[in-house]
């Protein structure tokens, strides 16, 4: 066995191949020392083997941690996942001794809530499953293991409630997982891209780090995908409305949370349409507003020498680079960037006559309302949507904006997330038998 | 689910303004408009009830499937094409009217033809979607627009400038005999149920229409509103002077608290949305009907991929619409519309009665059909197992 493994691997210092002998037996042990917990190797193999308190052969046979591995083709993969291979009397056994370096019990960073679980999923699958199982103690919880990536062979778990899950959705997900063939997966985002249509404008799968969101999704009959090495889980299928629903909405005061949900929808509409509306109203239909307002807008724009859409592009460029910079910069300089940028955007640009003061308000409203969306991947998707809408606004004014919004509506309604309608109001019904569209199925 | 039925009813009844219904009615205000409206309400309700019976007899079946049960395919083709043309013209006239409205009120510098081409592109995209998508868009659009329109109507009713005397004066002419044109025009308000010629495909076998009494009440209210409010604002004589009577009427209203002062902008934007939805549904109906004439496989209500035939047919619709707008001016459009609306009423009455008669014969046929389906299902299941 040792020779075979030796030829299988490239020159690597951490590959440990040992042949041991005691009074009666010769065993061969192979493992990659950097991937394994060496104390576990010595506890389970080396110490009992040399001490010989019990016959080692019986020990291996009785202990369920040792599993038979007969297929020599799997040796390489098994070693790379942190297993120890042990050959005894011509039979090969594997023992899980993996040591995974990960962040210990991380706090939620991306999707924070005030009152609610503060711990997030772990980068290690076993810890994540621990968290999920302890919050969802049901015998219906199914956990399927697979690997993705032709090179990375990343371990991946499908978690769902066997009773509540929609069988067609599960079948679609399995079929899609069979089909993907990218070599490498290190983050859930890559898996999201390969699972969905990468050109669609809206995310069809939710990426989250919150165990409470994961558990309520399982309870809704959704499927969770967990990936080794990433603390984010994928929830599928998801609808548009799930993305605008923060977990706090179930914890806090009823009326205030309903108000916040309404506010979020308004914010989404504003952040998408406001730049386009600015162009349309400035350049085509200033008579839309009441006279006093029109005058004050026109007055604030009087120093600006170019058409409104140039102004919009300048300001959107500034604000987008500001957001991008504050994400990319190290945490210590980040605040400096926002201060400097805010000063420039807020005062200097307007006094220099580059943009109107109304445009500054528009820009900040656009940016702030964008941050209201609770799930990050939806927030990023919505950030893009304002740009295509500016084009019809440039050519057709306010009616162009309406055409654009109509197109977005149709596009949203046309999306399906794993066969489920993505944008359907009042679509949550328990009995599906009397629903529309059930005939052709 | 019954709510989708009412969405169609509401949409079509609100959309009457775009098809010059109030204009035609007001032309006949001394010559029997009110009596015609009353007749239309009765006939329209009766037709709707008859059609509901059809829907109950053939759940999950669109017009092509129903016709196919009774006659060979070549015979169904002319019927389907006539129906498709009716829906196509309704949408195209709406779009043409709106492109002119945009030219009048929003962008006086943009040619209405250019706007129409852009509208056609947008509607081409929308109409080629699946039937299920179309009905979801309808739902969202109505939920956004209708509250605002209702608010505006409420404002109109509450306005101190509304002259109830004029309305009373016109209503004194209620005893004049009904006429064909105003009758046909007001019948349009009641035809929302006709969209279920195709949308019936979506209904599940246990579909039950609740609150069906709501249809005539709602439609009659809308009809009365769209006839009397302009008269109240412009007077008995002045109301007849305007072609786009409702745009002018909404421009008489003012919202004194808010960003937007003139009601017409809100009104037109809401109606632009509704018109786009209406055009989308109309083209989609026409497309599905023409598609069912093609020698093709079974229909799918929610295919994963848009078939190419969708694009070809709807592209043809768009070309026809633009050509129509290119060759006929506004005046001719008005004349054609007033004739078309009579033709449409005839087609509606004939087709609904025809389908109703089929459904009377159909109960026996349906039993046969169901039993046939059951046997084929039973035959298929051992194969599957």
From TrEMBL, chain A:
Highest taxon of the lineage: Bacteria
Transmembrane parts of this sequence: 223-244, 265-284, 352-373, 393-413
InterPro entries for the chain: Spore_Ger (IPR004995), UPF0353/GerABKA_families (IPR050768)
Keywords: Membrane, Transmembrane, Transmembrane helix
Keyword Metal-binding on entry: no
Membership in a protein family: Belongs to the GerABKA family.
Protein name: Spore germination protein
Organism whose genome encodes this protein: Paenibacillus glycinis
Native organism taxonomy: Bacteria, Bacillati, Bacillota, Bacilli, Bacillales
UniProtKB/TrEMBL annotation, chain B:
Entry keyword annotation includes Iron: no
Name the record gives this protein: GerAB/ArcD/ProY family transporter
InterPro entries according to UniProt: Spore_GerAB
Record organism: Paenibacillus glycinis
Membrane-spanning intervals of the chain: 5-26, 32-54, 75-98, 134-154, 183-199, 211-233, 263-287, 308-328, 340-361
Record's keyword annotation contains Membrane: yes
Highest taxon in the source lineage: Bacteria
Alphabetically ordered keywords of this record: Membrane, Transmembrane, Transmembrane helix
Cross-referenced Pfam families: Spore_permease
């Amino acid at each position: 066995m040792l020779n075979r493994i030796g030829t299988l691997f490239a020159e690597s210092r951490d590959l440990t191949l040992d042949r041991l002998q005691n009074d009666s037996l010769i065993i061969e042990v192979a493992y990659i020392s950097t991937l394994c917990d060496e104390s576990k190797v010595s506890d389970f193999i080396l110490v009992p083997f040399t001490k010989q308190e019990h016959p080692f052969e019986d020990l291996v046979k009785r202990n369920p941690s040792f599993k038979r591995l007969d297929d020599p083709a799997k040796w390489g993969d098994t070693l790379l996942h942190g297993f120890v291979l042990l050959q005894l009397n011509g039979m090969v056994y594997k023992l899980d001794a993996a040591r995974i370096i990960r962040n210990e019990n991380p706090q939620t960073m991306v999707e924070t809530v005030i009152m609610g679980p503060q711990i997030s999923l772990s980068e290690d699958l076993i810890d994540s499953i621990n968290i999920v199982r302890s919050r969802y103690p049901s015998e219906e919880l199914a956990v399927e293991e697979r690997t993705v990536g032709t090179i990375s062979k990343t371990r991946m778990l499908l978690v769902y409630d066997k009773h509540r899950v929609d069988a067609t959705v599960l079948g679609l997900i399995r079929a899609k997982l069979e089909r993907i063939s990218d070599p490498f997966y290190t983050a859930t985002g890559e898996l999201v891209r390969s699972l969905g249509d990468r050109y669609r404008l809206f995310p069809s799968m939710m990426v989250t780090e919150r165990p409470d969101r994961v558990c309520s999704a399982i309870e809704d009959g959704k499927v969770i995908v967990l990936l080794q090495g990433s603390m984010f889980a994928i929830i599928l299928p998801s609808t548009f409305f799930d993305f605008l629903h923060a977990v706090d909405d179930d914890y806090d005061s009823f009326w205030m949370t309903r108000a916040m949900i309404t506010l979020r929808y308004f914010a989404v509409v504003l952040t998408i349409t406001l730049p386009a509306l600015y162009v349309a109203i400035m350049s085509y239909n200033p008579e839309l507003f009441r006279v006093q307002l029109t005058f004050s807008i026109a007055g604030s724009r009087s120093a600006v020498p170019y058409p409104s859409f140039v102004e919009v592009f300048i300001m959107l460029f500034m604000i987008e680079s500001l957001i991008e910079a504050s994400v990319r910069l190290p945490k210590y300089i980040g605040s400096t960037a926002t201060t400097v940028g805010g000063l420039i955007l807020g005062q200097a640009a307007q006094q220099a006559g580059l943009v109107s003061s109304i445009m500054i308000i528009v820009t900040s409203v656009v940016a702030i309302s964008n941050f209201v969306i609770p799930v990050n991947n939806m927030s990023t998707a919505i950030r893009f949507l304002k740009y295509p809408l500016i084009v019809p606004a440039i050519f057709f004014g306010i009616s162009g904006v309406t055409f654009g919004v109509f197109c977005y509506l149709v596009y949203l309604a046309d999306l399906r997330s794993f066969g489920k309608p993505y944008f359907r109001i009042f679509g949550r019904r328990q009995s599906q038998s009397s629903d529309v569209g059930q005939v052709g199925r | 689910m019954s709510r989708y039925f009412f969405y169609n009813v509401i949409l079509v009844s609100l959309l009457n303004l775009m098809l010059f219904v109030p204009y035609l009615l007001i032309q006949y205000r001394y010559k029997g408009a009110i009596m015609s409206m009353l007749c239309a309400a009765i006939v329209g309700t009766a037709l709707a009830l008859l059609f509901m019976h059809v829907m109950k007899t053939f759940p999950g079946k669109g017009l092509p499937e129903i016709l196919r049960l009774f006659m060979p395919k070549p015979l169904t083709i002319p019927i389907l094409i006539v129906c498709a043309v009716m829906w196509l013209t309704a949408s195209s006239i709406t779009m043409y009217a709106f492109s002119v409205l945009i030219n009048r009120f929003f962008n006086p510098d943009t040619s209405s033809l250019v706007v129409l081409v852009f509208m056609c592109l947008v509607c081409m995209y929308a109409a080629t979607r699946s039937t299920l998508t179309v009905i979801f868009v309808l739902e969202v659009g109505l939920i956004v627009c209708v509250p605002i329109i209702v608010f505006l109507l409420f404002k109109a009713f509450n306005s101190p400038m509304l002259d109830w005397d004029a309305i009373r004066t016109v209503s004194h002419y209620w005893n004049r005999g009904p006429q064909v044109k105003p009758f046909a025009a007001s019948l349009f308000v009641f035809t929302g149920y006709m969209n279920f010629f195709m949308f019936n495909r979506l209904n599940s076998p246990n579909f039950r229409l609740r609150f069906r009494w709501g249809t005539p009440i709602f439609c009659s209210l809308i009809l009365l509103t769209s006839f009397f409010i302009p008269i109240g604002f412009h007077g008995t004589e002045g109301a007849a002077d305007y072609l786009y009577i409702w745009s002018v009427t909404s421009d008489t209203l003012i919202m004194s608290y808010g960003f937007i002062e003139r009601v017409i902008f809100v009104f037109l934007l809401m109606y632009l949305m509704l018109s786009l939805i209406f055009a989308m549904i109309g083209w989609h109906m026409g497309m599905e009907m023409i598609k069912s004439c093609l020698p093709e496989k079974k229909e799918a209500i929610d295919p994963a991929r848009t078939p190419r035939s969708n694009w070809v047919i709807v592209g043809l619709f768009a070309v026809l619409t633009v050509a129509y707008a290119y060759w006929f001016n506004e005046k001719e459009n008005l004349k054609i519309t007033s004739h078309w609306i009579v033709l449409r009423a005839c087609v509606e009455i004939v087709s609904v009665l025809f389908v109703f008669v089929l459904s009377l014969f159909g109960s026996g046929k349906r039993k046969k059909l169901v039993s046939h389906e059951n046997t084929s299902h039973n035959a298929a299941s051992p194969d599957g197992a």
